[in-house]
Amino acid sequence: MNSITPIQQETEVKEEAPVPVNKMAAMAAAAKAKQVAKNEEKAKQLEPPRQLAEITEANNARSSVCKFDDGKTRKKQNYEIQDRKVSVFKSDSLKLAFISTDLAYCTRPTESSLEHVRDALQHRKKVQPLLKADDLEMVLVGEVIEVGQDLNDAKGRVYDLLASEGWKLVCNRPTTSYPRP
Description:
Elements: H1 6-16, H2 23-45, H3 49-62, E1 65-67, E2 73-75, E3 83-84, E4 87-91, E5 96-100, H4 103-106, H5 110-120, H6 128-132, E6 136-140, E7 145-146, H7 149-164, E8 168-169
Parallel strand pairs: 5-8
Antiparallel strand pairs: 1-2, 3-7, 4-5, 4-6
C-alpha cells in the first residue's frame, strides 16, 4: 500500500500551487511580443531588397555628382531650371529680412512658400525671430536671373539696398564680382 506522509503531502501541494507572477515582467513580455508582431508585419509590407536597390540607383542617377578640377566632388543643384528670382522674406514690425534664391520659394504660391521657409529654416538661430513674426511676408524681386555670378550680384544688390534702408538682415551677404560699397 502506498501511504503518503503529511510531509510529502505538503511538498506536493506546494509544487502544485501557482507561482506568483511579477506583473511588470508580464507586461514587458506582452509589450515585447506586440513589438515583434508589429516588426514582422512591417517587414512583410516592405518591398524586396532588390527593388529597393533599383530605386536607390534611380535616385542616384537623378542627382548626379559634379567633379571639380581639384578632384573634389559634390552633388549638383537643380540646374535644369536655369532661371531664379531673388526672394525676400521680411517682417515690417521687427525690421528683419532674409534673402534667398532657393528655387522652392519662388515657384510656390506665397502661403506655401511661407510654410516652407518656416519649416526649412527652423534650425537657424539667427532667423528664429523672423520666422515667429506674425507679419512675415514674401517679396519676389521682379527680374528673372540666370544661375551663376549674375545671380550672386543681384542678391548682393538687394542685400545692399535693404541694408541702406535700415533693415537688419539675418542672412550672409553673397560674394559678388563687383566692389562692395
